[in-house]
Amino acid sequence: MRSPRYGRGVRVLHVGAEVAPFSKTGGLGDVLGALPAAQAALGLEVLVVSPWYARLGGEARPMWIGDVAVPYAGGEEPVGVGTLERDGVRYLFVGHADFSRPEAYGYDDDVRRFARFCRAAPVAAARVGFVPDLVHAHDWHAGLLPVLLERGWHLPPGFPGRPSVTTVHNVQYQGAAPLAHVLHWARLPLELVGSHLEHEEEANLLRAAVGFADLVTTVSPRYAQELTEPAYGFGLDTTFRALGRRLVGILNGLDTRVWDPANDPHLPAAYDAGDMRGKAACRGALLRELDLEEGGPVLGVVSRLADQKGIDLLLEAVPALVAQGWRLALLGRGDAALERDAKTAAAAAPGRVAVRLTHDEALAHRIYAGSDALAVPSRFEPCGLAQLIAQRYGTLPLVRATGGLIDTVAHERDGFVFEDASAPAFVGAAALARPRWGTPAWARMQARAMAHDRSWEASARAYLARYGDVMGDDA
To answer: Can you give the CATH number for the domain in which 17 is found?
Structure first.
């Protein structure tokens, strides 16, 4: 493996559908919001390309620098480009009517929309004179880029044949559409029929990215292993097994500037591992904010409400948790049936269960700080940031043994781990944790959790070393 020093000055183009704080629906946005800045701090020259959505967060005001002609469908179409710089990273935003919608994605024509985005990314980068040494594509939304670099036409000078890395953040979402349509939209040659682009008689953009990339990474070592198993590969396990050493798990980091209990503007009191009095103040404030009764430990949940996240298991366990004396603070939104069940659980146990069905970043910070433990009962979890945040805030995670959760939580040392994806297994872990709350053993576990270095620097160095492997003598 090459030393990271070979990466200084290397130009990396990151392409993804979300980048925090400008756009975010989940962990993908967090990664693209933090990894490029950590790489820039190591001396890389980094450009990030993302869609210019109707609403951009982070008080973003990109400077419009004009239209570019993007190869698309039967010819070329104009796409607007905006730019801004933060933390040593330059960002380009691709503007088109396709992205001026209320939500980032979730539409029937998403594959078509992101085919256009993939075609636009190289042209936008060339517009600002950025020719990368390596292209890093994230999830299926950028999945056509490795294909375009190897087999595509109409690329800007310097792009054909560039090495590529694909990161799989969540294999559940793959970007499937009729193959003929995708070939037409992306202006790709017909000989790609039968290639990695095709899966089960459709185009599959994630499989294309995995098959054509020089290196495939995932966001934790355990998830890399799980992707090769039928239970977790979502139909692509054979594709992942075929990668061999080209499949690598690199654990996500945490933006420790944003998640820092000693300097968190959303908290009523600051604290750190050396002085935990502020955490007690945060706990009391959270109880009052959510109208929860004192008398038992607070179990926080900050999650998308989805079966993947095991929220149905959690809600099934609520009566038993209440009987054990827990107070439950749940924040999130998602599946309508799970939202309905969450409301029912709160109505059945006023003062013991509080539910907020919304996205509220400030409240999320307060739940992480004010809770005693955090529930992460996921059926699968590529990496997970919730448990990392919880540990940094001295809140012990209760997690299922899967993906990045098992990579980052040691049972009865800095959290609690249960095996089966079932309500009884989760209740068992909660029953084990409950009597330890408030004891010296609990405090020792908190100290271990808060001592972890979860910053992005180690992850950024790991990526840089792998970039060197891919680029060879060019690194």
So the answer is: 3.40.50.2000
